[in-house]
Structures are given as C-alpha cells and as structure tokens.
Amino acid sequence: MEVCGSSNVSLREFGCEQSLLSRPDGSSSFVQGDTSVMAGVYGPAEVKVSKEIYDRAILEVLIQPKVGLPSVRERSQEQCVRETCEASLLLSLHPRSSLTLILQVLHDDGSLLSCCLNAACMALMDAGLPMSCLFCGVTCAITAEGEIITDPTAAQEKPLTGMRDESRALMTFAIDSAERRVMMSSTKGSFSVHELQQCIAVSQKASEKIFQFYRDSVKRRYSKTH
Amino acid sequence: MAAGFKTAEPLEYHRSFLKENCRPDGRELSEFRTTTLNIGSISTADGSALVKMGNTTIICGIKAELTNPTVEAPGKGYIVPNVDLPPLCSSRFRPGPPGEQAQAASQFIADVIERCDRLLYILLSFHQMYLCWVLYCDIMCLDYDGNILDACIIALLAALKNTQLPEITINKETCTPEVNPAKRCGLHIHKHPVGASFCVFDGSILIVDPTAEEESLSTSQLTVVTDEAGRLCSLHKPGGTSLSGEKLQECISRATARQREIQKLIDKVIQSVKTAQ
C-alpha cells in the first residue's frame, strides 16, 4: 500500500489458507491487508442438459458481496473472473461437466477484484483442476499527481473530490504465470497510454511476488507428511 | 458448398479467410463496418440516438428527472445508464431478468462515464430542498451482430449531445419546482469517449469490430475507449488469452484513429439537425 517509487513495488501483507472448507472440492481464503475473500470450487460435476457444451466443461462464477444481494457490479466482476479462469483452465479435459466457483467477500478494503482473482486461483489449484497456467490479480491506482500505487486501500481507491489520497484512475490486471502477459484488464478513470504501460510494468513486477508466494505455500503444504 | 463448410467447421472457415488477411464479409482485419447515426428520432424522450454499425442496431433514449443528489456527490447530478438486450435482437437472449452480458455492459458504460467530469450539472437549491438532474439512459439493442459496446457508447454520446433539458423555476409560494418545457437548453459535453472493440483469434491474430460469429469463435475480446485528448478512458479486457504489449499498442493507436472518425460523424449529424430546425 506504499507509494511506488521508480523500481520499488510494495504490496500489502498477503496471506492464504487452502482446504479450509469440507464440502467444496477445493477452497481457499486470500487476505490482502484488510481485504479478505473466501473461494470454494465444486467440480467437475453434472450439468443441466440445457447448459452443457459437448467438448468442454462450463464454468460458473458467483460473487457474493458482504452485504446485500449480488448486483450489476458483481455481474461484471463475475464476467472478468470467469473469462480469466476459462482461459487458464484446461476445460476440454472435462466435456459435458460443470465447474462452479463461488467467491464470498468477507471484507472489502480496496483491491477487491484482484483479491478475488488470487483466491480463485488458489481454490482451483486446491481442487486439483488441470490448468495451463496460473494467474494473479494486481490493482493499481494513479493519484492526481501521477504517482502509481499498487494494491490500494479503499480510501486510496476513492475518486477525486479534492481530498488527499484519492485516485484519478483505478486499474486491475490479471497476469498469467507463463509469459507474464496481461490476461484481463478492468479500468476506471482516465489515463494516458504512457501511464498504462507503466502500470502494466509495475503489475508484472508485483505478480512475481505473488507467484513466488503461490509456489512457497503449495510447497510448504505438500512437504508436510499427511 | 461454402455454406455447408461454414456450418460444419466455422473456425476453419474463418481461418481460411484470415490466412489471406481478410474476413468473410470482405473487410480488412483493421476495418470498421459502416456506421450510420440518426438522432432525435424518439420525440417523447429528452434526447435520443439510433446507431447502426453494419447490422448491429442500438437505440438510446434519455429521460431527465429531478431528484435529490446522492450522499457521495452532493454537488452534482448523475447519469444512470442501462443496457438492455431483449430477445428481439438475438435468439441467444431469453425473456426474463437481464442476463450477465447486459449487466456487464451496463456496468462498463457506467464506469466509462463515471469519472468523465464532462457534463454541466445543474444544481438548484431552495431552502433545504436540494435538487439535481438525473438522466436515465436506456440503451436497447434492436439487432445483435457483435460489437455492442462500441455502438452503445456512440449512441449514448450522441443522445447526450441531442438532449435538451427544460428550464426549472422554483415557485416561491408552493416551494415546488416548476418545469417550463418551452425553454430548453442543451448539455455541455466536454469529453467525447469513443470505443473500439477488437477480438483475438488463436491467441495472435487481431481483428477489429467483430461480428457475432467472430466474437463467438474468438479466444479473447478487448475494448479500448479513448477521448479526443488521446487519453484512455477504459481498457476493458474481460479475460481470455493473454495479449502482448505490442498488440495492445496497436489496438490503442487504432482506437485513437477511430475516435476522430466518430467525433466527426457525431458533429456532422448534430450540425445537420441544427441547420434543419
């Protein structure tokens, strides 16, 4: 949550727990600073004949907000998460099946979409679903002065009204682990092309840390004797 | 014979065209479909526009109402866009509550205009009665042939430029606002965001302004919204295969060129309506 200098990328303290729920085939909880999301994956399971696709599995994503019913905002976040997961999962290995990914927002203190993407990736790994690459989410905010903040808090994400600590633009990227390219991009606010390229570079740097964390946590988990 | 091949192997059919750097409808890879614009067609709305991009037809109607401003932004009015994809436009949409695509499109349009401080918000206040304008923008698709996001943005922009708001006076005796429909004034639009949509085939071939078939066969979709200052208002890529930096740069340059074309078109149409009146 610190302001990014020329080459220093700071993310809030993040943590993860896998296999914490007993019913879903895979589950995880991802915490970034105060933002916390829990994910559960069911699948491959039976699918309704009206929804089935003959050569691949169908993925459904549900995002439940902390308070209230899912609204239009959750639908667009679901579309982003679903298409990112579909691009990295090997869906053709499970034809005529359904995969369901449920994300429950436990607390939102900024960078919600990237926390959802990280929780989703860890839950898919925990479920043992075959994937061609991993992905992680990184959020960047551009302040009124043009500084780039990675992993902003809710206060830093607020649109400009003249108070301090607000952002002129907010962008979330999903970066893949194979070639570190942008898989998903969702932006709000106006920014120049140069700022966009800077943010992408900063996100790619930040994704290194997250992928290293994935690797470490899975290594730690499987090195224990069960 | 070609029709049979197209139904049996749609992806191979499209690939055979892409190999020759063209598309089944004869366009180049970076060519947009002909765009036509018609404004002011809905007389009961305060502003309206109809856009046709090839076969894709989108109509936008704007109604203005008076309401109390929101708690988050007490000094301004606000816009409520809503994109509707009725069963009329395509067999893939069933009757009932709006599906994911319509809701995601509504959220996208709301995000594009949310931080565009470009409208003149009229705030009236009398005693403790704070009033502001709220513009309900209903964007409906009449014919779905791909690339609705671009067409929705053009329709919304043209309809906002066409909107005429009536004059409001506060009646001192009854403390209520009085609408004078005879005197009307237009909105001041400072920014003109225009979108350009692309889709990616097989992870590497980039095509512009996809039709519905091309969208369903693509591996990834991308929409870039730019304004007249060359700044980006939105980069919307809801997942799909990853894109390299160079391809992204190509998309952005094509989008800026498109912004100029569409701005000219909208200005021409608005001008022709003014001279006709």
UniProtKB/TrEMBL annotation, chain A:
SUPFAM superfamilies this protein is in? Ribonuclease PH domain 2-like, Ribosomal protein S5 domain 2-like
Question: What Pfam families does the record point to?
Answer: RNase_PH (PF01138), RNase_PH_C (PF03725)
- Entry GO terms, CC: cytoplasmic exosome (RNase complex); nuclear exosome (RNase complex); nucleolus
Alphabetically ordered keywords of this record:
Cytoplasm, DNA-binding, Exosome, Nucleus, Phosphoprotein, rRNA processing
Give the CDD domains listed for this entry.
Answer: RNase_PH_RRP46
| InterPro entries reported in the protein's UniProt record | ExoRNase_PH_dom1, ExoRNase_PH_dom2, ExoRNase_PH_dom2_sf, PNPase/RNase_PH_dom_sf, Ribosomal_Su5_D2-typ_SF, RNase_PH
Chief subcellular location equals cytoplasm
Q: Where are the transmembrane segments?
A: none
- Annotated Exoribonuclease phosphorolytic domain ranges read 11-130, 134-205
Highest taxon of the lineage: Eukaryota
Gene Ontology biological process terms from the UniProt entry: nuclear mRNA surveillance; poly(A)-dependent snoRNA 3'-end processing; rRNA catabolic process; rRNA processing; U4 snRNA 3'-end processing
The GO molecular function terms of this record are:
DNA binding; RNA binding
Location in or out of the cell: Cytoplasm; Nucleus, Nucleolus
Q: Which PANTHER family match?
A: EXOSOME COMPLEX COMPONENT, EXOSOME COMPLEX COMPONENT RRP46
Would you identify the family this protein belongs to, as annotated?
Answer: Belongs to the RNase PH family.
Subunit structure comment from the entry: Homodimer. Component of the RNA exosome core complex (Exo-9), composed of EXOSC1, EXOSC2, EXOSC3, EXOSC4, EXOSC5, EXOSC6, EXOSC7, EXOSC8 and EXOSC9; within the complex interacts with EXOSC3, EXOSC8, and EXOSC9. The catalytically inactive RNA exosome core complex (Exo-9) associates with the catalytic subunit EXOSC10/RRP6. Exo-9 may associate with DIS3 to form the nucleolar exosome complex, or DIS3L to form the cytoplasmic exosome complex.
Q: What is this protein called?
A: Exosome complex component RRP46
Automatic annotation (TrEMBL), chain B:
What are the protein's GO molecular function terms?
mRNA 3'-UTR AU-rich region binding
Q: Where is the Exoribonuclease phosphorolytic domain?
A: 31-166, 193-256
- Does the record bear Nuclease in its keywords? no
The highest taxon in the source lineage is: Eukaryota
Tell me which Gene Ontology terms the entry assigns under biological process: exonucleolytic trimming to generate mature 3'-end of 5.8S rRNA from tricistronic rRNA transcript (SSU-rRNA, 5.8S rRNA, LSU-rRNA); nuclear mRNA surveillance; nuclear polyadenylation-dependent rRNA catabolic process; rRNA catabolic process; TRAMP-dependent tRNA surveillance pathway; U1 snRNA 3'-end processing; U4 snRNA 3'-end processing; U5 snRNA 3'-end processing
Q: Which UniProt keywords apply?
A: Cytoplasm, Exosome, Nucleus, RNA-binding, rRNA processing
Short name of any one Pfam family annotated for the protein: RNase_PH
Where does this polypeptide localize? Cytoplasm; Nucleus, Nucleolus
CDD domains tied to this protein: RNase_PH_RRP43
Q: Which family does it belong to?
A: Belongs to the RNase PH family.
Q: What is this protein called?
A: Ribosomal RNA-processing protein 43
Q: Which organism is it from?
A: Amphiprion ocellaris (Clown anemonefish)
Its taxonomic path starts at: Eukaryota, Metazoa, Chordata, Craniata, Vertebrata
